[in-house]
Amino acid sequence: MRSAIVGAVLLAVGGVLIATGVLPLEDAAAVGERVWPILLFVVAITIVSELCAEAGVFAAIAHRAAEWGRGRTLVLWLLVVVIAVVTTVFLSLDTTAVLLTPVVVVLARHVGVPPLPFALTTVWLANTASLLLPVSNLTNLLAQHRLGGPSPIEFAALMALPALVAILVPGAVIAVLHRRMLVSRYHPDEPSVAVDPVLFRSSIVVLALLLPALVSGVDVWIPAVVAAIVLVVFFAVRRREVLRFSLVPWQLVVFAAGLFLVVDAANSLGLVRLVDAVAGSGEGFVDLLRLAGTSAAGANAINNLPAYLALEGVASSPHRMAALLIGVNAGSLITPWASLATMLWHSRLVGLGVEVSWWRYAALGAVVAPLTVVGAVAVLTLAP
Predict the structure, then answer these.
(1) Distances, alpha carbon 361 to alpha carbons 38, 138, 149, 264, 326, in Å
(2) Which of 101, 137, 71, 115 is closest to 330 using CA atoms?
(3) φ, ψ of residue 72 in degrees (nearest 5)
(4) What are the tens digits of pLDDT across the range 211-264?
(5) Which InterPro entries does the record associate with it (predicted)?
(6) Rounded distance between C-alpha atoms, residue 188 and residue 230, angstroms
């Protein structure tokens, strides 16, 4: 609700800026034209993810992972890493934070291991693995538009090495921190997931068709909307009570819409010149690291979305845009407000009775974020 309130205030401020001429109506219309497909995709993919969770897809995956782990906690954790990466890459970081977090917590408790290392894996990878594809993060969709609409494959070619580093570094830190737990063993029970077989199978089919469609080069909002409509129809027939307004991430939409207007107005008033002096220029390692570091600091100070919008104007080439994304995505691991995914993750943990020390979270993030950003920028210089 807080994000919705902030978004409503930002929309009101944006309305005042338009009315007073600070933000010309033509510029505001251009902002709307740019962001409506992105926000529509966010709405559609959230509905798809929520309905798949209701159908038992994620719970079934978690139970199957417990079986595949064969009693070895390390193998089970590695399977969680894979699931978190795949979910983030194709269904966005917010999906991982909202839907996968309770699954891995229940899974950890089910096999008798502490849930926090699994939950920490989820939130770190939700942020860092979101570098790979445009659909993985709202900032990536904005960057794709800014770069002139490269295909998902072209986008992934630029971000593949940084994304790999951004997955390996947090994973390695967790493996070292929790090495004693990871060498333990557990005794898996038989999975017992009560699901509607029609909804379960239809959700699996929809996901199987949706994932390749998201990297096919078609505007991502189109397959996402189609998938959402198909699942809504199935649920309307089988479990109508699940179809509630809360499936729509309206708070995020309001927050993002207001933010776009206000930051665009700030850019027209000279914000770009200010951040240009801080973020510098050039495409050498030091130059890219300067931009990534600036964007990471901005993300942890305010939030990764406004940090991206403020610095977008100085990302004048594909490599500089990649460095910006490294900072706002992989670098947002220190403060709890650095990304919406982290805030959603925390709210899920509170509901599950898992305590998180923000001081410890920030201390760990202050180690992992710089290592991840530096490593990702270093390999970025190897990209063509």
Answers:
(1) 31, 24, 36, 32, 20
(2) 137
(3) -100, 120
(4) 888 777 788 789 889 999 999 999 999 998 888 888 887 777 787 777 777 777
(5) Arsenical_pump_ArsB, Cit_transptr-like_dom
(6) 35
